[in-house]
């Protein structure tokens, strides 16, 4: 697996698995981390495929576990899901993201939408739409500044519930994106039923670009998305060849290390400042 340059999760990952091998210990470590406010968000820019201008940020969870170092989000999100702490962790992160949106508005007088990742367990909680509404209200944030990234797997496994939750979230005015599109088994009909705003094409389909077969797949997804009035984001763009191929295939927004890795709130603010200058 590729790693962000300059960070290595490998050791902490193993520590978390080995040092906290049973669920009880993992649960205690996570619970303590949530209580102590050890979880933070990094913000990765997405850019307009044609102009290169900043369009939005994706908030990605980070845990610098004291004495252990950075733990991979894949590890601690999965552990939070196993131990039933994902609701608490997810709420903490949602509140942080809304606080950040409010702060950027206050500092720069404007903002771009911020996308928060939502675990299937969070999304399917009947109280989730109310939580989102509360988080926005607590920070005086208008709903159009918040996007929720949901995953294909939750939609496939619980289509009716997912459709109902997405409808409620839409009614609130937040945007909903399907993450990792192309890795799961969502049918084309499901995309129509869900009434999302955006799909994010998984890195696994972007990585092989500009191989001709991959271009054909990405183009077909973009044509479908266009017919359904969905925005398309290509994720994991690392080279200019991939960026050009994704843009030519019809992706409207691009995200990946080619533009920026996930940034601290301060560094993300610098992007925002440049974005709002002109
Ligand atoms: P994801 O939502 O698909 O996020 C994309 C991942 O790819 C992030 O890894 C990001 O840092 C990384 N990435 C971005 N651009 C590139 C690139 O050009 N090349 C490569 N190789 N990787 C790139 P990260 O931050 O380690 O997060 C991993 C996964 O953990 C996320 O995948 C998401 O499923 C989950 N996750 C992260 N934060 C949260 C959160 O707040 N809530 C939930 N429920 N899940 C989260
Ligand atoms: Ca995501
Ligand atoms: Ca993704
Ligand atoms: Ca992913």
From TrEMBL:
Q: What keywords are annotated for this sequence in UniProt?
A: Membrane, Transmembrane, Transmembrane helix
Q: Does the keyword Membrane apply?
A: yes
Q: Where is the EAL domain?
A: 23-276
The organism's superkingdom is given as Bacteria
**Which named protein is this?**
GGDEF domain-containing protein
């Amino acid at each position: 697996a590729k790693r962000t340059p300059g960070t290595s999760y490998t050791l902490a990952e193993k520590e978390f698995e080995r040092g906290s091998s049973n669920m009880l210990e993992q649960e205690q470590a996570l619970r303590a981390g949530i209580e102590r406010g050890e979880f933070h968000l990094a913000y990765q820019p997405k850019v307009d495929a044609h102009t290169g201008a900043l369009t939005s940020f994706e908030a990605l969870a980070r845990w610098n576990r004291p004495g252990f170092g950075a733990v991979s989000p894949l590890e601690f999100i999965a552990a939070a899901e196993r131990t039933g702490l994902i609701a608490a962790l997810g709420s903490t992160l949602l509140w942080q993201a809304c606080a950040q949106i409010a702060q950027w508005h206050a500092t720069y007088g404007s903002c771009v939408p911020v996308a928060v990742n939502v675990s299937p367990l969070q999304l399917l909680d009947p109280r989730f739409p109310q939580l989102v509404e509360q988080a926005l209200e607590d920070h005086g944030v208008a709903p159009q500044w918040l996007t929720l990234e949901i995953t294909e797997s939750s939609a496939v496994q619980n289509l009716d519930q997912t459709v109902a939750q997405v409808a409620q979230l839409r009614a609130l005015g937040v945007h909903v994106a399907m993450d990792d599109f192309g890795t799961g088994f969502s049918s084309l009909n499901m995309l129509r039923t869900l009434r999302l705003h955006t799909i994010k094409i998984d890195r696994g389909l972007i990585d092989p670009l500009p191989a001709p077969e991959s271009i054909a797949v990405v183009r077909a997804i973009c044509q479908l998305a266009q017919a359904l009035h969905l925005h398309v984001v290509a994720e994991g763009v690392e080279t200019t060849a991939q960026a050009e191929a994704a843009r030519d295939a019809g992706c409207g927004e691009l995200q990946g290390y080619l533009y920026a890795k996930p940034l601290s709130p301060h560094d993300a603010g610098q992007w925002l400042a440049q974005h709002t200058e002109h």
